[in-house]
# Entry
Amino acid sequence: MVKVQSVKNHTLHIEERAHEADHPTSQVAMFGADKPLKLDCGVEFTPFQIAYQTYGALNADRSNAILICHALTGDQHVANVHPVTGKGGWWDTMVGPGKAIDTDRYFVICSNVLGGCMGSTGPASTNPKTGTLWGLDFPVITIPDMVRAQAMLIDHLGIQTLLAVVGGSMGGMQVLQWAAAYPDRVFAALPIACATRHSAQNIAFHEVGRQAVMADPDWRAGRYFEHGTHPHRGLGVARMAAHITYLSDAALHRKFGRRMQDRELPTFSFDADFQVESYLRYQGSSFVERFDANSYLYLTRAMDYFDMAADHDGVLAAAFRDTITRFCVMSFTSDWLFPTSESRATVHALNAGGARVSFAEIETDKGHDAFLLDEPEFIGIATAFLESAASARGLKVTP
Amino acid sequence: MVKVQSVKNHTLHIEERAHEADHPTSQVAMFGADKPLKLDCGVEFTPFQIAYQTYGALNADRSNAILICHALTGDQHVANVHPVTGKGGWWDTMVGPGKAIDTDRYFVICSNVLGGCMGSTGPASTNPKTGTLWGLDFPVITIPDMVRAQAMLIDHLGIQTLLAVVGGSMGGMQVLQWAAAYPDRVFAALPIACATRHSAQNIAFHEVGRQAVMADPDWRAGRYFEHGTHPHRGLGVARMAAHITYLSDAALHRKFGRRMQDRELPTFSFDADFQVESYLRYQGSSFVERFDANSYLYLTRAMDYFDMAADHDGVLAAAFRDTITRFCVMSFTSDWLFPTSESRATVHALNAGGARVSFAEIETDKGHDAFLLDEPEFIGIATAFLESAASARGLKVTP
# Structure
């Protein structure tokens, strides 16, 4: 019989992760019945909590705070060891002492998004009304909902105006939404590799991922936690498909080409003959250890729903009319998930809205994931933009 | 609770399809123990059968035969009603009386590939040694194996030299392999939207599809037929992911944009809110009715293994050295599965091999699937190429 390898049943860190959902290894802001969150779906959501990390110190006039918004599968652990995986922060290339987002100079905040699974309230959190997890009883949320919750966190921290809001991919969507919803609270905005709305192709890829999760019998209509199961196979497949979209064809070719895994000749089987196959399998199986399947459904849905023009009667420029925020929009030439054309459309809308905006398209073959990598030109431009914003806001240069 | 829709459990035409695997509604060529098929994996495979359709009549000097090679999920029913789905032929745009592949003039042959599930021997066929289906006991096959089997069929039909071999995608790979393996048997070759090897990105997408199938518990390690199950959810997800790669971002945008399905406002649920979602779900659920999951594994694997340069000591041009075949290579501008750059590489190798080759890149936003659609410029060039080949071979023009 032909040999077969499929995604491995890793020993899941489910218990650790489940614990994080309610009791995160980071700071938590609690919002009680007196502070409901008004969701786009109409629900007044209460109570809820937002888990967040901070790095550096807030200065006396509270003018040096930078909010980082994470991407679909990111979390608040931007520059510290991850409590579940034990790996370094997801943006160690950008955030730290002396780095672009200099924690010696700026007060850096990153919160787990609403709907996430690392301590902000989401489908993996306990619903206090029932004592069991929310699962699909959690309301469907939107990017504006996430940003509203973040704004309450920023209030809670006593900060009126952020020096900058920064993020890539879904994080970039939040940056744009922050600038549109709270223009006087965002001094500078750095949206990276993102768009003001999700394309049909991107919705299609998300739908494949959701169907992969829901097709897994262990998903149990979203109540796997009550059955002691976990849809790790479905979520693994979803991650594999998504991961291809984060890379470019050129990057895959450069990284793997058609090279075989630990052998020179084909096995004539369904083993992972090619390196790219075992790489993807690893991506799938490691992801399920740190992410909740229902959270994946909710966050992809929020991205699909994102459409800033639709929220402004079809006129995107209206989202940014007379904004005082300064913008730097960045994209990557080989990003086909959020191609440069999307960033150009954002820039045109910002121009039409009268915004102060610069735009940088970075030449790279690394695809969408380039914003997470050590891309010197990207990091250099981001550094300079934040420095000029800090200088315009009167921050002293660190000695 | 948030509403959920997942891929429907269609009433599967499993029995009809299973019957086709051994007893196809088309002609069948049987090859017994005296005619084993030497497979690349080393197996001498016997017995086996090849199911095929023909259209038109072979002329007296047997010079008007055109072989069509089908793509991954195609079959021999190129221009007739499909026996399982009841739909028209998959290439009705190209094949028929007075069409580009004119059945009034040419004798048109199309065979189900080895490893397929519509009557040529494959994993869904009965293994005569055991009396049960092959499943994963079927050997892993390659594109050259498929072509070897087709050549035996062409022998069986008493044809020495084909006027043309034509095909798109996996069919195009077979066209190129035909020209390389049997240059004196291919007067003209028309490889469309294909490549001489599968890229890392394409292998990656195939691997996602295979893992989706294998992740489905109903797959039962490939022996679902013995358990009365069918991995329709996994295969549906595989098809959904693949289908995105057959279209272009522009085509998806034009077809669906962000339009909602039967409604104007989001449902704040996991329903198919967007038209593109319900379209993909339909593609997934209709595919599983007509295709065998194990066949999908084998045929994607064959494409992954395809690498003509590797078969010629790394020198692609050697595959076509001193060929007498005339070639027309065609690609589509918006095809990102087999981009024009791949076709250009094929053309360069053909030039280096001294072949007579023309190349046409068709401007279209319809993506890879354009070869299956009514694309006038594409069809016009294909018609002219085949006419010139017929004329060069001395075929009389039909009155």
About this structure: Chain B touches chain A through 67 residues (CB under 8 Å).
